């Protein structure tokens, strides 16, 4: 992927069951799942429930990045995975140099909003 080289992210490998993001924690990074599969989990009344799946090629961690707040869910590897970690500085460079990367980021945000709206409608 050409975007990877221009953004200069760090690549990490995680094993099945390992968490990359913990609900309530704080950090300032965005993540890109290069290979594998991740589960997104929310804790409610002490019980953890999987609410989404992240597939290879998807960006995650963008919500806390944008609002600069705590992580709203835990993200854990469902299968052995390879993740690109993008810092705010690298992200800013990518926005200036890579319009395709910005398009992927915006598309991910819109999809998350749509999924949230659909889930809210199903509950009513």
The outline comes out as globular
* Biggest sheet architecture: 4 strands, antiparallel
Uncertain stretches of 5 or more adjacent residues: 1-7
CATH topology-level fold name: Jelly Rolls
CATH architecture annotation: Sandwich
Structural class, by secondary structure, is alpha+beta
The number of distinct β-strands equals: 8
Q: Please compute the radius of gyration using only Cα atoms.
A: 14 Å
Give the class-level CATH name. Mainly Beta
Strand and helix order? HEEEEEEHEEHH
How many domains in all? 1
For the termini, the CA-CA separation is 41 Å
Q: What this model shows, in words?
A:
This protein is of the alpha+beta class. The chain has one domain (2-123): Sandwich (Jelly Rolls). It is built from four helices and eight strands; from the N terminus they run αββββββαββαα. Strands 1-8-3-6 form a four-stranded antiparallel beta sheet. A four-stranded antiparallel beta sheet has the order 2-7-4-5, with no helix packed on it. A hairpin with a 2-residue loop joins strand 4 (37-44) and strand 5 (47-55). It is globular.
């Amino acid at each position: 992927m050409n975007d990877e080289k221009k953004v200069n992210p760090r690549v990490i490998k995680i094993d099945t069951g390992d968490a990359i993001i913990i609900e309530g924690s704080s950090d300032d990074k965005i993540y890109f799942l290069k290979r594998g599969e991740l589960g997104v989990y929310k804790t409610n009344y002490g019980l953890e429930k999987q609410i989404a799946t992240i597939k290879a090629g998807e960006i995650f961690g963008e919500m806390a990045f944008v609002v600069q707040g705590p992580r709203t869910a835990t993200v854990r590897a469902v299968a052995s995975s390879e993740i690109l970690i993008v810092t705010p500085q690298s992200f800013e460079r990518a926005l200036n140099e890579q319009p395709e990367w910005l398009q992927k980021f915006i598309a991910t945000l819109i999809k998350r909003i749509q999924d949230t709206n659909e889930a809210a409608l199903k509950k009513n």
